[in-house]
Design a protein that fits this description.
26% of the residues lie in helices and 30% in strands. By secondary structure, it is an alpha+beta fold.
Length: 154
């Protein structure tokens, strides 16, 4: 991988997938069998030295078909999302209140949907304008985490 990820918050396991999601994503999970949700947080440094925090969520569905259908919904703008651990209460001192604004990457692995988000650790850097201008770089971090299997326990 390109980035070295350090564990920031260990994996949490949930069985109530719908209860840890929003919008159309929640609606889909409420109507389809989800075996579990594993979420974790990592930090990494960009090439310019700026620290980022990466959220990895692994949604265990009953089949590849349902994981792919969930990905399609999750990938749409404004369709709701799987809540990251920061949004669900893990505090990053001086950092963002959630990680839903940038660096989105998702992939299906078997019957699992992996959703990765990356934003700046520094809340002052974590502004709409900054996130928009650096979304491509943040996405690259998320994609690297996904391809390295970070947080996927496989």
């Amino acid at each position: 991988g390109v980035y070295a990820f350090q564990a920031y918050h260990g994996a949490t396991d949930e069985t109530d997938c719908a209860g840890h999601s929003t919008g159309l994503v929640r609606n889909y999970l409420a109507g389809h069998s989800c075996a579990g949700l594993t979420r974790s947080l990592y930090t990494a440094s960009l090439t310019n030295g700026q620290k980022v925090v990466t959220s990895v969520a692994v949604v265990q569905m009953e089949s590849q078909t349902s994981a792919s259908a969930l990905k399609k919904i999750s990938d749409e703008n404004g369709s709701g999302h799987i809540k990251d651990l920061v949004e669900d209460g893990v505090v990053i001192p001086g950092g963002p209140a959630n990680l839903q604004d940038a660096g989105y990457y998702s992939m299906v692995k078997g019957s699992r949907l992996i959703v990765v988000m990356t934003e700046y650790v520094d809340g002052a850097m974590d502004t709409g304008g900054n996130l928009k201008s650096s979304d491509t770089a943040l996405k690259a971090v998320s994609k690297d985490a996904a391809s390295q299997g970070i947080g996927q326990n496989n």
